Amino acid sequence: MTIQTDSPETTASGVVVPDEDRAAVAAVPQRLVEAWAAYDADAFAEVFTPDGTLILPGVFEKGRDAIRAFAAAAFAGPYQGTRVTGTPIDIRFANEGAGVLITRGGILAPGETEPAPERAVHASWVVVKRGGHWHLAAYQNSPRHAA
Predict the structure, then answer these.
(1) pLDDT grade, residue 80 (50/70/90)?
(2) 111-126 per-position pLDDT tens digit
(3) Per-residue CA distances from 108 to 12, 36, 55, 74, 115 (Å)
(4) Is 93:6 a contact under the CB 8 Å cutoff?
(5) Most CB within 10 Å of its CB: which of 57, 107, 112, 127?
(6) Distance between CA 75 and CA 104 in Å, rounded?
(7) What is the pTM of this model?
Protein backbone atom coordinates (compact mmCIF):
# COMPACT_ATOMS: atom_id res chain seq x y z
CA MET A 1 0.00 0.00 0.00
CA THR A 2 1.30 3.45 -0.90
CA ILE A 3 1.03 6.18 1.70
CA GLN A 4 -0.02 9.53 0.29
CA THR A 5 2.16 12.30 1.70
CA ASP A 6 3.28 15.85 1.17
CA SER A 7 6.36 16.22 -0.98
CA PRO A 8 9.27 14.48 0.77
CA GLU A 9 11.11 17.77 1.05
CA THR A 10 8.50 20.28 2.20
CA THR A 11 5.01 20.68 3.60
CA ALA A 12 2.21 22.46 1.79
CA SER A 13 3.29 25.58 3.69
CA GLY A 14 6.87 25.22 2.43
CA VAL A 15 8.38 23.97 5.71
CA VAL A 16 11.03 21.27 5.46
CA VAL A 17 10.15 18.10 7.42
CA PRO A 18 13.07 15.71 7.94
CA ASP A 19 12.67 12.07 6.94
CA GLU A 20 13.16 10.98 10.57
CA ASP A 21 10.12 13.05 11.59
CA ARG A 22 8.04 11.52 8.80
CA ALA A 23 9.06 8.05 10.00
CA ALA A 24 8.34 8.94 13.64
CA VAL A 25 4.84 10.18 12.75
CA ALA A 26 4.14 7.06 10.69
CA ALA A 27 5.19 4.99 13.75
CA VAL A 28 2.73 6.65 16.18
CA PRO A 29 -0.06 4.11 15.41
CA GLN A 30 2.33 1.23 16.16
CA ARG A 31 2.91 2.67 19.64
CA LEU A 32 -0.84 2.39 20.33
CA VAL A 33 -0.97 -1.08 18.75
CA GLU A 34 1.82 -2.25 21.09
CA ALA A 35 0.23 -0.67 24.18
CA TRP A 36 -3.11 -2.32 23.31
CA ALA A 37 -1.45 -5.71 22.72
CA ALA A 38 0.05 -5.49 26.22
CA TYR A 39 -3.24 -4.13 27.67
CA ASP A 40 -1.08 -1.36 29.11
CA ALA A 41 -3.32 1.64 29.80
CA ASP A 42 -0.36 3.72 30.99
CA ALA A 43 1.59 3.17 27.75
CA PHE A 44 -1.59 3.81 25.76
CA ALA A 45 -2.18 7.16 27.49
CA GLU A 46 1.49 8.20 27.19
CA VAL A 47 1.19 8.31 23.39
CA PHE A 48 -1.13 11.32 23.86
CA THR A 49 -0.20 14.86 24.85
CA PRO A 50 -1.18 15.73 28.44
CA ASP A 51 -4.32 17.46 27.10
CA GLY A 52 -4.91 15.04 24.21
CA THR A 53 -8.36 13.91 23.14
CA LEU A 54 -9.76 10.50 22.23
CA ILE A 55 -13.01 10.43 20.27
CA LEU A 56 -14.70 7.16 19.38
CA PRO A 57 -18.36 6.55 18.56
CA GLY A 58 -20.13 7.48 21.80
CA VAL A 59 -16.86 8.35 23.60
CA PHE A 60 -15.06 11.62 24.32
CA GLU A 61 -12.08 11.62 26.68
CA LYS A 62 -9.74 14.56 27.29
CA GLY A 63 -6.39 14.36 29.02
CA ARG A 64 -4.06 11.48 29.78
CA ASP A 65 -5.77 10.59 33.06
CA ALA A 66 -9.18 10.23 31.41
CA ILE A 67 -7.69 8.33 28.45
CA ARG A 68 -5.79 6.04 30.83
CA ALA A 69 -8.97 5.31 32.82
CA PHE A 70 -10.95 4.63 29.63
CA ALA A 71 -8.26 2.27 28.30
CA ALA A 72 -7.95 0.40 31.60
CA ALA A 73 -11.71 -0.16 31.76
CA ALA A 74 -11.86 -1.12 28.07
CA PHE A 75 -8.97 -3.61 28.35
CA ALA A 76 -10.59 -5.23 31.40
CA GLY A 77 -14.06 -5.19 29.84
CA PRO A 78 -15.35 -4.98 26.27
CA TYR A 79 -11.92 -5.03 24.59
CA GLN A 80 -10.46 -7.84 26.69
CA GLY A 81 -8.74 -10.35 24.40
CA THR A 82 -8.79 -8.05 21.37
CA ARG A 83 -6.00 -6.40 19.43
CA VAL A 84 -6.04 -3.27 17.31
CA THR A 85 -4.53 -2.44 13.96
CA GLY A 86 -3.93 0.84 12.13
CA THR A 87 -2.04 1.33 8.89
CA PRO A 88 -1.10 4.85 7.75
CA ILE A 89 -2.64 5.75 4.39
CA ASP A 90 -1.98 9.52 4.40
CA ILE A 91 0.46 11.82 6.19
CA ARG A 92 0.49 15.62 5.92
CA PHE A 93 2.29 18.33 7.87
CA ALA A 94 1.04 21.81 8.73
CA ASN A 95 4.53 22.80 9.84
CA GLU A 96 7.66 21.20 11.29
CA GLY A 97 5.89 20.40 14.56
CA ALA A 98 2.34 19.42 13.62
CA GLY A 99 0.72 17.02 11.21
CA VAL A 100 -2.24 14.84 10.37
CA LEU A 101 -2.09 11.10 9.88
CA ILE A 102 -4.95 9.07 8.42
CA THR A 103 -5.10 5.32 9.07
CA ARG A 104 -7.19 2.35 8.05
CA GLY A 105 -7.65 -0.32 10.71
CA GLY A 106 -9.89 -1.43 13.51
CA ILE A 107 -10.34 -3.84 16.37
CA LEU A 108 -9.31 -7.45 15.86
CA ALA A 109 -11.20 -10.19 17.68
CA PRO A 110 -9.17 -13.24 18.74
CA GLY A 111 -7.91 -15.11 15.66
CA GLU A 112 -8.65 -12.29 13.19
CA THR A 113 -6.02 -10.79 10.90
CA GLU A 114 -8.39 -8.15 9.49
CA PRO A 115 -11.14 -6.37 11.40
CA ALA A 116 -14.70 -7.51 10.74
CA PRO A 117 -16.74 -4.83 8.91
CA GLU A 118 -18.49 -3.76 12.11
CA ARG A 119 -15.11 -3.07 13.77
CA ALA A 120 -13.27 -1.56 10.77
CA VAL A 121 -12.47 2.17 10.93
CA HIS A 122 -10.75 5.07 9.29
CA ALA A 123 -9.05 7.32 11.82
CA SER A 124 -7.63 10.83 11.97
CA TRP A 125 -4.59 11.47 14.15
CA VAL A 126 -3.44 15.01 14.91
CA VAL A 127 0.20 14.74 15.90
CA VAL A 128 2.49 17.32 17.48
CA LYS A 129 6.17 17.36 18.30
CA ARG A 130 6.84 18.12 21.96
CA GLY A 131 10.19 17.77 23.69
CA GLY A 132 11.69 16.20 20.58
CA HIS A 133 9.06 13.43 20.40
CA TRP A 134 5.85 13.03 18.42
CA HIS A 135 2.65 12.71 20.44
CA LEU A 136 -1.00 12.33 19.66
CA ALA A 137 -2.94 15.55 20.32
CA ALA A 138 -6.25 14.23 19.00
CA TYR A 139 -7.55 10.90 17.74
CA GLN A 140 -10.94 10.28 16.18
CA ASN A 141 -12.28 7.32 14.24
CA SER A 142 -15.40 6.48 12.34
CA PRO A 143 -16.79 3.27 10.85
CA ARG A 144 -15.21 2.34 7.53
CA HIS A 145 -18.42 0.71 6.26
CA ALA A 146 -21.91 2.15 6.05
CA ALA A 147 -24.17 1.21 8.96
Answers:
(1) very high
(2) 999 999 999 999 999 9
(3) 35, 11, 19, 14, 5
(4) yes
(5) 127
(6) 21
(7) 0.88
